[in-house]
Amino acid sequence: MTGTLITVAPTGAESSKADAPALPVTLDELVTTAKECEALGASIIHVHIRDDAARPTLDQGRLRATVAALREGTGLIVQLSSGGSVHDPEADRLAVLDAAPEMASCTMGTVNFGDDVFMNRWEFIVDLHTRMQERGIVPEYEIFDLGQLTTLQRLLSRYGLPAGGHVHVDLVMGVPGGMPGTAAAVVACEQAIRDLPEGTTFSATGIGRSTIPVMLASLSAGGHLRVGMEDTLTYAKGRPVESNMQLVARAVGFAQLAQRPPLTAAQARELLGVPAR
Ligand code: KMH
Ligand code: ZN
To answer: Whose CA is nearest to atom 4 of ligand 1?
Structure first.
């Protein structure tokens, strides 16, 4: 078993700055957060950006500036979200790839998302996957429900391995409408991942209060960790999260307890097939 890949997802598209003042929404806030999380042990940053009014946006100029600033200021693997917000049109989500990130997310199916629907049609998934192959962008396949792992198997068998040749999935657990954030669900996914190409790796994140059970289960099952204010705004009962760094520090502590210390960004690149800088 190797060390632990720690992804920080600092912002997301769902929470407002008014509700969570520590949410990084400006480029400066994002870069500062990224540097501090890297120093603590994160190796990937999963990025959603905001506009001047702190609303989620997929503005191309901002995306490009964000990729450039994160590459300049950190050694982290820069992973742009192609999921955006539930309101973003498919064309804008595909255009995220034009900002040339090293990695991008690629969700494996439609899922109820609270009161909304996060749409991911088969043809759209195929488009994202094949465009990433053509451009050498390494995908992280986002899995919100068990059956989406079977969709991934179908995708890979019809359209081939991703850029870099390595398959990495992220289990996003505890979304109202998706799979629960439980140890049993982590184990069920880990069993299904065995049917994917040899060497497939996974990370997991639990939304809200499922964050701790999912972290512990993932580490026990040989998985990696994603943490951050995209997924978790409460540190403990009655205690709002103070910063993304607080969540990364906790994940690093758990990984060390499991005797699987954090991978550096260079080690993460090697594991995932992301070209070295
Ligand atoms: N904001 C969610 C609708 C991703 O980044 O790829 C989708 C999401 C997944 O967060
Ligand atoms: Zn996201």
So the answer is: 83
Would the pLDDT of 48 be above 90?
yes
Domain coordinates in residue numbering, the chain: 6-272
Cβ 228 under 6 angstroms from ligand 1:
no
**Is 86 touching ligand 1 by the criterion CB < 6 Å?**
yes
**Which DSSP letter does residue 178 get?**
B
Ion ligand 2 neighbours (CB, 5 A) are 81
Separation of 236 CA from ligand 2 center, angstroms? 22
Q: Is 83 in the pocket of ligand 1 (CB under 6 A)?
A: yes
Work out the average pLDDT over 172-185.
Answer: 98
Q: Residue with the nearest Cα to atom 6 of ligand 1?
A: 83
Write out the H or E segment, with its range, that includes residue 171.
strand 168-173
Q: Say yes or no to pLDDT of 1 above 70.
A: no
Q: CA-to-CA distance for 60 and 168, rounded, in angstroms?
A: 26
Instruction: Compute, in angstroms, the gap from residue 232 CA to the centroid of ligand 2.
Output: 12
Instruction: For residue range 93-102, list pLDDT tens digits in order.
Output: 999 999 999 9
Residue type, 195: D
6-272: which CATH number, 1.20.5.170, 1.10.40.30, 3.20.20.70, 3.40.225.10? 3.20.20.70
Local confidence band at 2 (pLDDT 50, 70, 90 cut-offs): confident
Which ligand is closest to the CA of 144, given by its number?
1
75: number of Cβ within 10 Å: 16
Taking CA atoms, 244 is separated from 5, 19, 57, in Å, by 16, 15, 21
The answer to whether the pTM exceeds 0.85 is yes
Apex CA 85: angle with CA 80 and CA 86, to 5°? 135
